[in-house]
User: Fold this.
Amino acid sequence: MTGPLAGITVLDLTHVLAGPYATGQLALMGAEVIRVERPGGDDFVRGHGGTAEMRTAGLGASFLSQNAGKKSVVLDLKTDAGLAAALSLVERADVLVQNFRPGVAERLGLGFEAATARKGDLIYASLSGYGPDGPLASRPAYDHILQGISGLMAMTGTQGSGPLRVGIPIVDYVAGQSLIAAVLAGLLQRAKAPGVPQELSVSMLDAMTNLMGAYAINHQTTGALRGLDGNRAFSDSPFSGRFDCKDGQLVVTANTPAQTRRLCAALGQPDLAQADEAAVAQALAELFAKDSVAHWDTLLAQADVPAGPVLDLGAALAHPQMQASPCWHDLPVPELGMTVRAPGLSFRAPWAAARLDPAPTFGRDTTEILTPEARHEPT
Assistant:
């Protein structure tokens, strides 16, 4: 079954993580994604992660994870020939996505005005750290910086550890998801108002803080700030948190009164539901330490209390639930004679592809894409 974006062409002028993640997801929805790369192959993700052989081939783990099925064209956008070729690709694109710092695309001759002069109904989507204006607009932005400036780090960690970054580059991927939503909304808007160009802008800072609305409104109305509360649950329930067991850790989420009663009954301590917070913390710590993660996980599942083990990524991927997931697929890497397991779309759909096409080697499709036949031009 053909994906919903079949027939849509995306010109991908992005690099690093956030932009390529977004365009990679669009490719998995059926779009033709033409990735424009700079001479010299300076996008560091091609050489990031995986084996030495993978990195040398420019097919590092970070690159493979979000570039399946794309095409790769090498263009020097600072030359007249490179710019002309890029503008010819604009003419055949439905969507252009770029994550240069504000003003760079304009200096290259690929800003909104120049691009839409070549394609009148183009959806032009920009992603940057702080958006096109404001006092920080011209600054470079990376995930680690955005975790700090967004307020995320200030609520992650403990009083002893101080602020900590979230383990994955979460701001990149949150911004990437926002970019996907923007492009899909733009395509829907084009169907309602055909022939009208659209300029869309995603700020990494806006994307991340958008997820903090509950905390922001609480702060505005009470003056309170979420602190370094470690594993304290969002609900603030003392019956929720991460607990040490004999052989590992367990996360329990008993947020409601009913869940609390079931938890206390399962632990053989029904009166604990009425105890004060300090007594609850001490009792739960002592109880969970007496047995294994598997014991408590099974017991609480039988009692209908939300709980689960703390796993590392390797154990998570090996879990039967993940082994059966239809959202992960084999990704062939023919250049290296190997296949890896890689994420596809994060949701199930009847049209979702059951396999991944290979990620492109550097510049693999340059000649094919830039021939007059590919541009539908006469020779």
About this structure: Residues 170-192 form the longest helix (23 residues). The chain has 16 helices and 13 strands.
